[in-house]
Here is the input.
Amino acid sequence: MEPGRVIPVLDKGFVRLVDVMGSDQAIVQAARVSYGEGTKTVREDAALIDYLMRHRHTSPFEMVEFKFHVKAPLFVARQWFRHRTASVNEISGRYSVLKEEFYEPKAFRRQARRNKQASEGTLLDEEAMALAKEAEEEAYAAYQALLQKGVAREMARMVLPLSLYTEFYWKQDLHNLFHFLKLRLAPEAQWEIRQYAQAIAEIVKARVPLAWAAFEEHVLHGASLSRTEVLALRGLLTPETYEKALAALGLGGSRLREALEKLFGPLDTPLA
Here is the structure.
């Protein structure tokens, strides 16, 4: 995906790739400094990147950086900025008069019954939608009235709701970008920020396909186990049955040994 392409998100938002520094080859090149001359083919590059990801050797992934231009509602941006490892520059409400642009969902969601910070299902309530629309219009009218009275922009903006759209530039290295995506693509993340995460994932996957494949395998769709969970699995499985199951899924060689030792500890005998 070339810089400049815009992916629409929500009703008025977007993600735009501004610039990229590095590629899968940059990750491999950085790793070779530590691991020697290294690899010469795409297959070997993929194997090295997979090794780095599954062993959490993160610094080579930091050699790749993405810069995005994002337009999102304020409440999404505030969640976004909790990821404090990026360089961010947001439009200034002290310098500029903010536009009358609000996020207007097609429907509200109900408050989740078992999770105080989550939502579930759909709440079809025209009166609720009208209340939100009215609040936005009244808030922006108050904002304009305060500006006309000479109130400073930095103070007049305090009456505006969190549904107002903002824009920002966001520059992030790939290691921390993967951490962002792991959290914000999760089913428990708020639906709105998941839409932005999906747009960013599309861009990242196109730019670093080998790193993305390793991320999907070991992080996004992987899981870590506690000591108690490992002990429970050891009680249910034998190395032989686990080896057979892994081999049936295509795992072999040193990768198969690694998986077995992850659960059962060092193996005394070589694999068949």
Summary: The chain has two domains: 6-105+166-220, 227-264. The chain has a mean pLDDT of 93.
